[in-house]
Sequence to fold (157 residues):
Amino acid sequence: MAGKRHPNASATDAISALDDLVTTSLVGQQEFAKNLGLSVTDLVCFAYILRAGDSPVTAGDLAGRAHVTTGAVTGILNRLERGGFVTRRPDPTDRRRVRVTALPDAAERVRSVYEPYNARLADLFAEYTPEEIALLTDWCTRAGTLARTYLEDSCGD
Fold:
């Protein structure tokens, strides 16, 4: 597959384009969350739970990943449970801990909101060669790690 010719760009151009993507994505997350009857923070937490797959997430893990207090996670989990998104069960080895998993129909509801957008992204990726996609994936992975590290360093307790 031949890739599409791409215009020259500087690091400044790339950072500007990334800033625009992040800003637009934040607005999109707000709209997606609203369509699902959730807040953005609730949706972010549910996304972490979904990514865990069949491995239950603890409330403490969720608090750390979402950068909220354990008290805030309790409220988030209450809303997610009332909305039919998750189930909570006591940890069999430590009754003080709660394990959270996504309910299958809730995962499907969220996928249905994101699928049209993901289909458009797939169409966009079709314009790139496998090597270019590998480069984009590497950059996004490394930038994500950098962002998480920066967040921990600058905003951690």
In short: The mean pLDDT is 90. Residues 116 and 122 are 10 Å apart (CA to CA).
